[in-house]
Give the backbone structure.
Amino acid sequence: MGFEVRAIDGDKWELLFSDEPSYIHALKMAPDSIESELKSGLWLIVVFPVWSGPDRHSVRAALACAKDYAGKFQLGVRPCDYHEEIYKWWPGGEAPSRSDPVLTVLGGPRRNVHISSDHSSSPIWLVMRDGRVVYQEAGPRSKEQLSELIQAAQA
């Protein structure tokens, strides 16, 4: 059980799940439009940058939450490389804005360059019911926080 992010065709990535239940879905990176299956039922969708180690922990939290609910909702996990990739498929309404990266260069005998972005800007979470957005937010979430989101969406 688990997942792997694998580079394919230039700057594209794909997500592969191994031995995961049928209600856990690897979504395509940067599709031209939203997938039709996302327009039916209850979905928790997480969009995470492939290069972010901390966001992979949030993906694991989403997997654990989905398994706790054993198919009462569908989990879609979408890799991305750039924030702008979400705009083509985003299901109506305003998509979350990206945060600008911060570049810090420390001088001295050894130059140290640090690039970071606001940790609260990813991953992106989306809860959909029958194609309608009922929740959207960004930032790390625990399994328990995700469970609260699902409970609220089911009410």
Residues 2-154 form a domain with the Glutaredoxin fold (CATH 3.40.30.10). Residues 12 and 36 are 22 Å apart (CA to CA).
